[in-house]
Amino acid sequence: MGRDSRGEQKRSITLTDVARLAGVSVATASKALNGRRQVRDETRQRVLAAAETLSFTPNPFAQALNMPRSGTVGMLTSDLEGRFALPIMMGAEDAFGSGATSVLLCDARGDAERERKHVEALLARRVDGLIVVGSRTDPRPSLGQRLPVPVVYAYAPSDDDADVSFVPDNIRGGALAVEHLVAGGRRRIALLAGDADYAAARDRVAGVTEALQAAGLELVGGAASFGPWSEAWGRRVTAELLDSDPEVDAVLCGNDQVARGALETLRERGRRVPEDVWVAGFDDWEVLTTSSRPPLTSVDMNLEELGRTAARHLFHAIDGQRHGGIVTLPVRLVVRESTGGAENGAD
Amino acid sequence: MGRDSRGEQKRSITLTDVARLAGVSVATASKALNGRRQVRDETRQRVLAAAETLSFTPNPFAQALNMPRSGTVGMLTSDLEGRFALPIMMGAEDAFGSGATSVLLCDARGDAERERKHVEALLARRVDGLIVVGSRTDPRPSLGQRLPVPVVYAYAPSDDDADVSFVPDNIRGGALAVEHLVAGGRRRIALLAGDADYAAARDRVAGVTEALQAAGLELVGGAASFGPWSEAWGRRVTAELLDSDPEVDAVLCGNDQVARGALETLRERGRRVPEDVWVAGFDDWEVLTTSSRPPLTSVDMNLEELGRTAARHLFHAIDGQRHGGIVTLPVRLVVRESTGGAENGAD
DNA sequence: CTGAAAGCGCTTACAG
DNA sequence: CTGAAAGCGCTTACAG
Prior knowledge:
The structure is a homodimer of 347-residue chains. With 347 residues, the first copy, chain A, is an alpha/beta fold. Chain A has helices spanning 15-22, 26-33, 41-54, 60-66, 85-97, 112-124, 170-183, 199-214, 231-244, 256-268, 286-289, 303-318, and strands at 72-77, 102-107, 129-133, 151-154, 164-168, 189-194, 225-226, 250-253, 278-282, 297-300, 325-329, 332-334. Chains A and B meet through helix 4, helix 5, strand 2, helix 6 and helix 10 of A and helix 4, helix 5, strand 2, helix 6 and helix 10 of B. Strand 2 (102-107) of chain A pairs antiparallel with strand 2 (102-107) of chain B, so a sheet runs across the interface. Chains A, B: GO terms for molecular function: DNA-binding transcription factor activity; transcription cis-regulatory region binding. Chains A, B: Residues 13-67 form the HTH lacI-type domain.
């Protein structure tokens, strides 16, 4: 009964074993185990007991051969390195993880050809759906509408309206930050927006602008500054800002790295944060926000929840409901000392 | 844009379809496709062509039902948040990814019970092997020897010698750093080791101590300092160090966050880096090392390669070879300006 | 309620 | 070299 003796594989327990022990046919055993109602209760108990004592685990391949679902979804990421993909993956994994669905992980390394291959491989494995996780909020090429399974896009939206995408609400994030600054009495607000090539940067600027107008204010210098997402740029542009607009009383930065740079320069120039100037960033990257002097207020993108939402949507799409479009998900402001501290309660 | 109405494929292409088109039996088709040698070459070509035109993809479940391998491995991580797990996963995914093996991802969130459940679920899915990725180099509980598939541990080693574990060589890392400092003429070296509760911290101290002895030197202050892995601690303990040992000419830090703190305090105290004092860290976390003033020399743990190695080992273990023990993998020093810059060529 | 039988799509001895 | 047949482990009409 054994296989090749090299592997010394113990034959695993099959439904036949369970049926034999319970004294029923495999058909009945199957029904009992799957909760079909055409089984006498006493019989079902007997089968369940038998399965229990034998530690029976149904062979998923045999099951899949008879059922429409494989119980796996593919997660396609373009950059595992990127820190944005991670929390999203956590959320998605979390939403599936505990259930009967498993996540097949693929990293395309930002290479389109590699991505194509991975999609093919995932489909060959008969995944029930695909979740595509990107590293920036700019639209990415759609996988197309001809795939045999539903697809959702997380963080990086598809460029095709027919697809469903989930992205953080960067516009609202910009507005949230401004409202907080204004509520704290700030009137001369500068915006160090980051890299204009990123939709995230532009969206945040849009939200900031809106909220400022609503408050009857204008940006210091008349417009946002754009530059690399780095501490170095944050330091440099903040120095320029202090020269050109020494009266500035708040510096809002496009991400936490820029904000770290701003904090450093302000400190070196003798400006006290938050007494003289308030500073805030975006992304709420803890390693940066909690250790700065002072700790940094930041807009958190709620990425884990975004991943969870995307996964849940995929679930429903698998069950037949589909609709397209980009869904923006709420973000939240995390207030720390750089804008007066948590007791200053915003939002 | 004409719509192709033939795309209504309910039933997917099976081997039977291929066989029919090629005018052979499914048995022959199977052999041809699988490279069995008992097939006439002309026949094989015909089958391959048929498969090609039909875009045939073998059903993996049917295949798995007949073969000893499922073609999937489980990756069990205790914390997707942790930045160490990520590059390791990338490496592992990379080693498998392109091949016929897929990675099933599970995150146990550091919860033992959850981990147990995930292992069970992965085994139920008939994974061919398990790769357990931890977030610190301290030993973790073994999954035990009773699992039906091979297991390898990455970063966090198993506490059971019978298991195979891959960890970065922190001892050698400590030595590497010291050798570099000494080669640069440093004689009064301080060690801000980080959290003594971590094996990584203690191992690095051990390597540092060894290398110092070899050079006939001693640590400034006679011993390493221990504290939290934070910039704040790095700042504080560096201030103390400058008070107690103003002659210090190198500060080696247990990780990059501590090193960032050290750099800041040195700068504020008017010490020039690297002219007066050299500074180096561990982990080579780019967001921290490349944007500091000056950019920070750091020992890189080569985590992606570690993940790749672990995955490859699992491959071989699946093929039957097994042996236990903890394997330490090489790390490397990345020299930046904080120790004189790359041209100062160390290692 | 229960079970014999067909079948999911593929592979592999085993005869031709 | 090729194919008929058995079988992998399970599910589901379909008869009892």
